[in-house]
Design a protein that fits this description.
Bound molecules: 2-OXO-4-methylpentanoic acid
Oligomer: single chain
Number of helices: 8
Strand content: 25-35%
Structural class: alpha+beta
Largest sheet: 9 strands, mixed
Helix content: 10-25%
């Protein structure tokens, strides 16, 4: 059990009015905890959300030793506050930590930190449909040392951002660029972790995709540039000839919490779903024969994001009629319904704060 010292801000900010966007506004408080080698995690506290002071020599600035997570809190129509499967984020945080030589955080402490700071800023949770309080837990390496070695000190922080849809288009279908030059990750690397380096590696292709009018990049495997991996901020699913497919977790793909929830929901609905290797040629062939029925991304920030258009080299594939597919819509309605308490939660995913 964490002993969290809470110091409330003396200057609470005005709550946002109007459209929120994603990740632009921050609440009044944040959770902070230090790690020191030999002492472990210590000084758990909730303080005002404010700038922090760090040496310019910190390991995180030079070698990117950091881990982050993404979660959300929801205000139900019953007035209660809910988290969605927080224990999976806690477990995944430690999978990332182990790969990045960051000390593990006891999973119950990770969840307690999130619960505590959300409780303090509960009145920041937006209630408009499609909005939530986005939660960003992260760890940074803070040793002031330019040698390449794991840091001996760290900061674990949790910040909160009242947010709307991740894409400015909302639930409208997005266009995705299948990248055939740059790659994001390879097996044995850090592709399965949530760490800044994976996202830094994605930026050049994302700029290229944006310039061509696409919202996100779909990555192919780093060796043959042939097999589908994931999208910049989401996992990816394809409905081909009645069956839903998603790339199997192979060490270079992020094990998404929404991805896992979608697979469980599809199974419970009797819709066949497979995790396996999917080649870009298989997609092109399915498109040509009219069997590529739906494409959607899944993620905490993106929830379910229908894909209306895919581009690969000179081929531009319009998916279905370019609108929101029936399975994508049903998944979106069910997942957000469970998250906000509007629907029953047969899987026990919702956690009341
Ligand atoms: C999330 O979905 O929570 C993520 O962390 C993706 C991020 C790139 C916005």
């Amino acid at each position: 059990m964490l002993d969290i010292k809470i110091t409330k801000t003396t200057a609470p900010k005005a709550k946002p009015q109007g459209p929120l966007g994603f990740g632009k506004i921050f609440t009044d408080h944040m959770f902070v905890m230090n790690y020191t080698e030999g002492k472990g995690w210590h000084d758990a506290r909730i303080v005002s959300f404010e700038n922090i002071s760090l040496s310019p020599a910190c390991v995180v600035f030079h070698y990117g030793q950091e881990m982050f997570e993404g979660m959300k809190a929801y205000k139900g129509a019953d007035g209660k506050t809910y988290l969605f499967r927080p224990e999976r984020n806690a477990a995944r945080a430690n999978e990332s930590n182990r790969r990045l030589c960051i000390p593990e955080i006891p999973e119950e402490d990770f969840v307690e930190a999130v619960r505590a700071v959300v409780r303090v800023d509960e009145d920041w949770i937006p209630t408009e449909p499609g909005t939530s309080l986005y939660i960003r837990p992260f760890v940074i390496a803070t040793d002031a040392f330019l040698g390449v070695a794991p840091s001996k000190t760290y900061l674990f922080m949790v910040i909160l951002s009242p947010s709307g849809a991740y894409y400015s288009s909302g639930l409208s279908p997005v266009g995705i660029w299948i990248e055939d030059d740059y790659v994001r990750a390879v097996k044995g690397g850090i592709g399965y972790t949530k760490t800044g380096g994976n996202y830094a590696a994605s930026l050049a292709a994302q700029v290229k995709a944006h310039d061509a009018g696409y919202s996100q990049v779909l990555w192919l495997d780093g060796v043959e540039r042939r097999y589908i991996e994931e999208v910049g901020a989401m996992n990816i699913f394809f409905k081909i000839d009645g069956k839903v497919l998603t790339p199997a977790l192979n060490g270079s793909i992020l094990p998404g919490v929404t991805r896992n929830s979608v697979l469980q929901l599809l199974k419970s609905w009797g819709i066949p779903a497979e995790e396996r290797r999917i080649s870009v040629d298989e997609l092109l062939e399915a498109q040509k024969t009219g069997k590529l029925e739906e494409v959607f991304g899944t993620g905490t920030a993106a929830v379910i994001s229908p894909v209306g258009k895919l581009r690969y080299k000179d081929d531009v594939m319009t998916i279905g009629d370019g609108g929101i597919g029936a399975v994508s819509q049903r998944l979106y309605d069910t997942i957000t319904g469970i998250q906000t308490g509007a629907l029953k939660d047969p899987f026990g995913w919702r956690v009341e704060i």
